[in-house]
Amino acid sequence: MPTPQVPHLHFAHLAKDKKLQKIMIDHLPPIQPKVNIMLLLMNSIMSQQLSVKVAEVIYARFLQLYNGKHPSATQVLSTPTETLRAIGLSNAKVSYVHNVARFAETEDLSDEKLHQLSNEEILTYLTQIKGVGQWSVEMLLMFHLGREDVFSLGDYSLQQAMIKLYKLDPTDKKALKIKLLKLSEKWAPYRSYACRYLWKWRSAEGK
Asked: Which of 17, 111, 149, 155 is catalytic?
């Protein structure tokens, strides 16, 4: 299990970065780990490239297929492609959802197993599943497993927030990524909180 989180412990550490400190208006609460990683991965796949509202509707339809209960991997695998297409999933997403279910069944995937692994081990483990990329696992680590020290370099919104806050030149993509990683190093071991502050700030800015 992750080390118990102490509320606001991140704040003083991140405030050493004076530019980041300017956007840290309030203390962010720790994210409590959520249960049923298999379904969280499926939900992440279903939500890709959709608005939050549409994604919620599709996931609700998905659960309705199982009378509103959380299905097992076997139940999902037994659900025909046509049935999953009918709730609004593309062929590719149906395939990826089935891939997650198959992996969960074969690997005996459990929340307990993942909590015993490091961030890097979880990334390697879950990205074996076709349809589950690095970004999806990073979001899982941050928002569902409660890991405090995750930096999602490939997240577009995070990149844009850092470009604006630190006045970075985005022209050279390779040089930009090196700079972003270097900036993030000083936020360790609370990089997840730094990302959340940056996302919140960008959202409030309306950009």
From this structure: 155
